[in-house]
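Posting for a labmate who doesn't have an account.
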Amino acid sequence: MIGRDEQRSYYRMMINADCSILIDTLEAPQEINAICRDLSSNGMALEIDQALDIGQNISFVVHSASEQIPSLTGKGKVLRCHPEGSSGFLCGVEIIELI
């Protein structure tokens, strides 16, 4: 967990869970695999292979590792996206709605 010296309203849980992102484009919806690195009550950090546009609306499913716990499904908005390492991006997503 991130320390108390960080000025956040909600603490983040490190989860490293598989995640599916759905981007609605004019041509056809595009599904992208990602890893949800951390999660809080109003946002999450996603590790992804391609950059997402800031302000872009997405749908997401954070897959559960257990059949007894349902997956987390919702809609979000990309707040930031920057290169992470040599082949990926780290994107901050605001959770708009849980479904």
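Reply:
Got it, the structure tokens are right above this. The chain has a mean pLDDT of 88.
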